[in-house]
Amino acid sequence: MPSPKPQRKPGPTTPGPDSADKKLDELLISSAICNNEDLAPFVRKTFGTGKPETLLHHLKLFARSKESEIEEVCKAHYQDFIHAVDDLKSLLSDVESLKSALSDSNSKLQSVAVPLLTSLDSLVEAGTVSKNVDLAVGAVTHCLRVMEIVARTNRHLQGGSFYMALKCVDLIESEFLEEIPSSALRRMVEKRIPEIRGYVKRRVSKELGDWLVEIRVVCRNLGQLAIGEASAARQREEELRIKQREAEEQSRVSLRDCVYALNEEEGEDVDGEGSDDGFDLTPLYRAYHIHQTLSLEDGFKQYYFDNRELQLKSDSQVSSMTPFLESHQTFFAQIAGFFIVEDRVLRTGGGLISKREVEFLWDLAVTNMCAVLEDQFSRMQTANHLLLIKDYVSLLGVSLRRYGYTVDALLEVLSKHRDKYHELLLSDCRKQMAEALSTDKFEQMLMKREYEYSMNVLSFQLQTSDIVPAFPYIAPFSTTVPDCCRIVRSFIEDSVSFMSHGGQLDFYDVVKKYLDRLLGEVLDEALLKLISTSVHVVSQAMQVAANMAVFERACDFFFRHAAQLSGVPLRMAERGRRHFPLTKSQNAAEETLSGLLKKKIDGFMILIENVNWISEDVPQSGNEYMNEVIIYLETLVSTAQQILPAKVLKRVLHDVLAHISERIVGTLCGDLVKRLSMAAIKGLDVDIQLLDSFTEQLTSLLSDKEAIEMKTAFVEIRQMINLLLSSHPEKFVNPVIRERSYHALDDRKVVTVSEKFRDPSDSIFGTFGARGSRQNPKNKSFDTLIKRLKAVS
């Protein structure tokens, strides 16, 4: 190994002008090189100044300073290397022996591991196969689950379980579709899912369409059933009111005879759901549920509402081919059933239809029904038709009010046609009464059975006694009375039926107003017409007068009946009672009877012409005419007492007796009588006494006071006779005496009769045979009376 070169010593330097700076740089460079610092700044600076010699010089010096160190290190490492090589050479034999041992071990290992490697390869291959089989089994299992759900879906579709089918489809789509390993199966399932949904939608839509068709028939039947139940409930209420009225009647007779009974009624469904169990909403709710499942809920709601609105508009149209009277029940029942169904759908449909939508449909139906009622009522000319429709509409209102629907608008339409209904009803009653009166034979009604008596007398409270008569029974009235009473009662019931259940609670005043019109206009005018055109003989007039007395009792019953049906206490109804509404016809009947009796009396009074007014003989038994009149009056009274009330007979008799008095006075004042003798006046006195006796014999008819009042009917002729028989007739002019004894006499009549009554011996011809004789004082008194009365007149 060559020896290292000796280090060269640096030569001496000669200091210059920049020697200090240069020396400093050299120190810095030398220090940086010795300290192994970064020389980059010095390199840049050196090359920047273009004088790298200093840096190179120092680097070379540094390299020479390290050469000895390098040589020493190399020597040390070379010795170690020589020693290592010697060691390796000594280990070479050991390595060879180890190599042969390893080779033998390797051969043995390979001989043993070959079968194991073969088994391992088989194991790895079996693991791979097992893994592939597991994957295949998992795929097949997944497909089997999908196919199982598909099969279940098919079964649900075949069985009509569309909701479960859709749930299976949703399950396949959400959990199995993306993981189906078979692409063919996946494509098939992806294709079938929308087809199944479309099929289900079509099926439920068809079922819904069928249901919408069937529900119209169901609605009609349902409405008829609901209205029928309302009618039955109303009938039960009416029966309860009848029982209450009977109890009130019994309590009026005797509080001790009141009958108390429990009212047993069938339980009613207060919620109004007892009548709507006969319809099935399953197809509707099924379709709604399916559309909810298909996320088509809003569209289905609108579809249902639009279809029901169209159905309602169709149901609200009236067919022009069928009279409304025949179709009104079907018309209103259809609408009632429609809203009963909608109420159920609103309450149980889970939001299928809203309350606002139902109210919209109801307002539409009410508007259409009001328009139909207005149109049909304006055309109707029969009260019964109007009542039938009104009753059915009111039942419709009762039925639907139970479901919360407001029916005020319908009731207002009914109330608006109240006057027209009553005018038509009055017109019908006018025709019925005219027919009833035209068939009257003016004969007392014969009743052979008790039911006839109950139907014609008791039902109108026409009886005068609570004792049931023996049969056959002859009533004091003719068949006209119960016939007219039935017409009036029917009018009252029809009027109350129209006014009741119409929203107005207190309607008695309205019923009473029209009842007054019926009695005061229709019945009164019909009776006046009957009296003026058909009554020609006394028996007819007497029967009509008897009928009028019975009508007076019947009118009391009419107003009580109207009050009872209107729910007004009888005491209030009796408190507001008015005068007898048939006063005109009653007066006309009595006047006609009086007029016919006067004509009959005039036939007997013709015999007064046979009286010898200058006779000297007094007829002890009265004149012939008076005897005939008395016989007729007695016959008349015996007949009239059977049918005429006492007060009517008294009025008629008073009128007839006054007419007899007027006829006698008229005869005395007339041209038929030229002169009057005392015997003739005394004969008239006997005639008047016969009249007095006749009135006194009416003890069963007249009281003492009434008998005295009856005698005032012929007070004029009585006072005239008293004046003529008086010894001082001139006292007639005395106001006190005249007011007390002669207040009924007329001055002119007194003068006329007095001139005829003076003694003929005092006449101008009588003085020839009795010259110088004294004048009769009574004649003188009459002369004085005549002069004074003539002077006054």
Automatic annotation (TrEMBL):
Q: Region (Disordered): which ranges? A: 1-22
* Primary site of residence: cytoplasm
Location in the cell reads: Cytoplasm, Cytosol
Report if keyword Cytoplasm is assigned: yes
GO BP field: acceptance of pollen; pollen germination; pollen tube growth; vesicle tethering involved in exocytosis
Source species, domain of life: Eukaryota
Which cellular component appears as one GO term in the record? exocyst
Keyword entries, A-Z: Cytoplasm, Exocytosis, Transport
Please state every residue range assigned to the domain named Exocyst complex component EXOC6/Sec15 N-terminal: 58-227
- Per its UniProt record, what Pfam families does this chain match? EXOC6_Sec15_N, Sec15_C
Report the coiled-coil segments.
none
Annotated Exocyst complex subunit EXOC6/Sec15 C-terminal domain ranges read: 410-756
Q: Which InterPro entries match?
A: EXOC6/Sec15, EXOC6/Sec15_C, EXOC6/Sec15_C_dom1, EXOC6_Sec15_N, EXOC6PINT-1/Sec15/Tip20_C_dom2
Please report which protein family the annotation says this sequence is part of.
Belongs to the SEC15 family.
What function is annotated for this protein?
Answer: Component of the exocyst complex involved in the docking of exocytic vesicles with fusion sites on the plasma membrane during regulated or polarized secretion. Involved in polarized cell growth and organ morphogenesis. During cytokinesis, involved in cell plate initiation, cell plate maturation and formation of new primary cell wall.
* Official protein name in the record: Exocyst complex component
> Lineage of the native species?
Eukaryota, Viridiplantae, Streptophyta, Embryophyta, Tracheophyta
